[in-house]
Design goal:
Length: 235
């Protein structure tokens, strides 16, 4: 794992992640396959693991020492900083769910007490469909993000987003048409449009996309909200 500024983050955090990963260094090392990073109360990146760097398409060294707005849209960065600051303030772990780079993800926030450096917040982006992701905490409350980055999915209309979601759940076009009170021909037209916009050929590819990006873990209400949002670019 590459490191930016050297950290002595080895104190036990308040509300640390489950599974005994209590110090930040160990937390990042044991979660190398999961994008994880540490920011301070001002939203400045203190440390990132390789997985987060790969997720953002930049090396950890490029992002360490910079504000989160360097890799997140303004509204999203503001929300991230506010959540991190609140977590540092009261020590309560937080979980938010939202669309980031066209993936439906959970973001976990934990406060870590770091002797000599003040409080840091460890942020973990968890793929919710992975069996090796962190276990949900007891009584955990997930707050939905207000700002979403749909990436290429922003090209889809709200209705197309719904159709894609239904396809990902293994439903036939006649069944989808019935549930949406539309004709099968209309559904076929939506499928063709989705294929053109996302560069996908066939329903199998669409089903795979839904599974791979975690969209199957959204509720229909969330699909309507996210795809119908005016904040489609995450700004």
């Amino acid at each position: 794992m590459r490191r930016g500024r050297q950290s002595t983050a080895r104190g036990e955090p308040t509300g640390g992640p489950p599974g005994g990963a209590y110090c930040i260094d160990r937390f990042l090392v044991t979660a190398l396959t999961v994008p994880a990073g540490v920011v301070d109360a001002d939203g400045v990146v203190v440390e990132l693991n390789e997985a987060m760097g790969e997720w953002e398409g930049r090396s950890p060294e490029e992002l360490v020492g910079r504000h989160v707005s360097a890799f997140a849209a303004p509204a999203r960065a503001s929300e991230l900083e506010a959540t991190a600051s609140a977590t540092i303030g009261d020590g309560e772990p937080r979980v938010t769910a939202g669309m980031h780079k066209g993936h439906w993800l959970r973001f976990r926030y934990y406060r870590a007490e770091t002797p000599g450096e003040g409080s840091l917040v460890c942020i973990m982006a968890v793929d919710p469909w992975r069996s090796d992701a962190l276990e949900d905490g007891a009584g955990e409350r997930i707050v939905e993000s207000r700002h979403h980055d749909l990436a290429d999915l922003a090209a889809l209309s709200t209705r197309e987003g719904e159709v894609l979601w239904h396809l990902g759940r293994g439903k036939s076009l006649p069944r989808i048409a019935s549930e949406l009170y539309r004709s099968v021909k209309t559904m076929e037209a939506h499928v063709r449009s989705i294929g053109v916009k996302l560069g996908l050929r066939g329903r199998v590819a669409m089903i795979s996309l839904v599974q791979d990006r975690g969209l199957s873990h959204m509720t229909l209400e969330q699909v309507k909200l996210v795809f119908g949002s005016g904040d489609r670019a995450g700004t």
